[in-house]
Structure formats: structure tokens, C-alpha cells
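Give me the fold.
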Amino acid sequence: MTPLATAATQSLSAPVVQSVDWLAIAPPTITAVVGMLILVADLFVPERSKPLLGCAAIAGLAVAVLSLAPLRKGDRSTFCLTTAPDVCSYTADHFALVIQFLVLGGALLTALLSVTETKDRLPAGEYWFLLLSSAAGAALLPASRDLATLVVALEVASLPAFALVGLRRGDRMSSESALKFFLSSVTATAVTLLGVSFVYASTGTLHLTQIATRLDDVPGQLETLAQAGVALTLVGFAFKTAAVPFHFWVPDTYVGAPLPVAAYLSVVGKAVGFSGLILVTVIAFPMYADVWGPAMAVLAALTMTAGNVAAVRQSATRAHSAVRLLAWSSVAQAGYILVPIAAAAYSSDDQIGSTVAYALMYAIVNLGAFAVVALVARTKPLNRIADYRGLYATRPVTALAMGFFLLCLAGLPPGIIGLFAKVTVFSAAVDAGLGWLAVVMSANVVIALYYYLQWTAVLFRAPEGVSEKAAEGAPERHRAPVLVTATIAITAVAGIVLSGWPQLVLRFAAVSLF
């Protein structure tokens, strides 16, 4: 028997993976199990008791967040090869834990926003199952360390999102948005799978660390195949970040989706894309840093510019202009978040901490802004920016919170956390020698000031056709749902605390470095 045949026989007789570390995989597992239990329970729970399903979903997500605490050392891995114990498919390192905290925390706040929606407009059982399923996939992705698990996690996070967008039965706009989202995302998935297959064909492995090693020694006849695989894989993850030119689905999807789902996509959907991009670029493809680095820099510049220019053009009186502005704003914010990833190709992996810090800031304030939008939409279903005129006269605390969120997104005091995050990203570009990108970012920050400050000013104007004195004397009041108010309060308090101690975000994100 030849040595090759002997080695093959030994590898077949040996177990493929080590025993499962259930504590390491607890966060996504708890989320998925609770989602399945809710789906089954929905068959037996009477209609009057459906709100209990929402309570179960919130409790499950809270437990999943708490399950991150025992993993805080970031030193656990599982599903490892017996022939190479350091090569694993799932690694609960600091990077994975921080992104899982962002994802599960964002899903938890989305769940708080969704309770009222499921009572009034959406089928409760299906909604909670789809939300938890998507959150489970999103929590799995940052811990994935092979391309197969990455793609599976990406699809588990994405497929339920299509259904969530189109879950409002009989709503033509919702169905149209879901179809656009589905078609564009399926195309991106097909491109990603093609890229993954090319990478596997040229390297013979799917594990990220092994790919990085073997790309250094690809046979000449396979080099073109490897380069095509790298490019196609990056395209798929760039779509999930809503980077240009893969951003056209964003505004229509956000407008057609239920507002909690739009909030979820703006934060958790982006976290999925960025964590996937970071994993494949920094861990799997460092050999091609001279290729993807400039590509990411150009992508960042185009994305922030396209998002801000489109946001500036939004009319305050157009239907759903508030959601559209937040949608285009999220595209622009994606451009800022791409900057440290591009910088990592020129300096070191330490730049990734800036991306994570910015993503954490963005998640907090953007969820808060969407919570205010969801509250206003209860009385102003067209949700125009003009509908926010005089909000301070009727809901002064809500108006102050919204103003704070918008100033954070703009990077202006008292939103110090937004300013701190932008300075961190700006520094990453300068340290990497990307001066031109820092200049582009500076210009875009100035452009963004216009529409953020314009919306902020609307909040404090007197209602149209009413004098300021009359508006203050007889404000129109509507009872706000408790959980929506709680979401606004949680995000506002978090933003205020982090504005007082912005270094906490960078310290928290710094432990996410590889």
C-alpha cells in the first residue's frame, strides 16, 4: 500500500472533529432553540395568549446575551480537526464575542420594538420564529472560521430576513420590497458560492487559516482561479454591507418592511456583512491585501459619498422620507465603517478595532432613531420628515432623544460618542497612509451635517400653522407603547453614558482584535 493510500485510510478511520463545546456555541444555539420552541408553541397557544410568544422571544434573546459572559476570556474553540487541533470551524474569540453582543443586543432591542407590531399588524408566531432564526445565523457568523460555515451562517441570517420584510400580508409595498431584496440577495449569494468554490478548488481547504497559508503557494495554473475566487467572495459580503454598487435595495426594502425589521436590517444585517468581510480579508486573504485594500478604500469612498448625496436629496414632504433618509444614512455610515477594513491592508489588523467601535456606536444610536420613527409612525403613518415638526411641543423628551441620536450620527456635541467614533475611523485612515480617503471622509461628514441638522431643527419648530405659544399651551398627546418608550430610553441612556466615557467603546472593541 502506498503512503498516500495509508494516510487516506488513517484519516478515514479517525474521527473528523473533536467533541462539541456546548458553552462556546451557547449564544446562537439558545437563540435557535427558543425560535423553534416558539414556532411549535404557536400551534397550540390560543389567540388571546399570543403576546406570551413575544415575552418568550425577549427572554430567549436576553439569556443568549447573558450566555456571552462565561466566554469573556475569548479562548474557546470547537469543531476542530483532529489532525490539526488549532484549525477549527467555530472560535469564540474576542472578535466573535463583541460582534455576537452587538447582534444579539440589537435583536433584543428589535424584539422590544416589535411587540406592539405583532399585536396589531403581524402574525406573532411566524414573526418571532423568523426574527430569532435570523439572529441565530447572525450570531453564528462572526465565530465561523471556515468558508462553508460562513456561507451557511450568512444564509441563515438572510433567508428569514426576506420573509420578515414581506410579512405584512396584503401590503403590496411590503411584498415588492421583499421581492427586490430577495432577488438581489440571491444573486449575491450565487456569486459568493462561486467564489468559495474557486477558492476551495485552488487551495484544497475551506478553513480560513489554512487558506491564508496555501494561497502563498498556489500553483501557477490555478493562480487566476484563486484571484477570481477571492474577488467573487468579497463581492458577496460587500452586498450585505450595502456598499456601492450593491446598495440599491436598501431604501425600498426599509420603506416596505415593518419598521422594527428595517431597524434590524440597518444594524444586525450590516454587522453580518462587516464581520464576514473582516474574516475573509484579514484572516483568509492577507496574501491579496494589495488587491482588496485599494478596492475597499475606493468602495468606502464611493459608498459614503453616494449615501450622503442621496440623503441630502430627500424631500421633507415626501411620503416615508424619514425612513428613506435613515436608509441612505445607513449606506453612508457603511462607507465610514469600511475605512478601517481598508486601512488594515496597509498597516495592521489593529485597525479592525476602529470598525467594531464605530459599528457599536452606530448600532446604539440608529436603533434609537428607528424607535422614535416607530413611535411617530403610530400617529403619522406617512412618516415624512415634515411630520416631526413640533415634536418637542407634544413629546419633549422624545424630541430631545431624537435630536441626540441625529447629532450622534452627525458626530456633533453633545453626541460625543459619534464624534469619537468618526475621529477613530479618521485616524485609522491617516495612520495607514490613506490621506486621500481621510479627505473624502471629511467632505462627507460636512455634507451629512446638512441633513442631520435640518431634521434636528424640524423637531423644535412650532407645529405648522400654530404659534409657538399655542403649541406649548395645548400639546396633542398620544399614549406611547411602554416597550417602544423603553427602547428609546435604553438607547438614549447608553448613548449619553458612552458620550461621557467614549473610551469605553474603544476598550471594549480593542479586545476584538485577532
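The longest strand covers residues 76-80.
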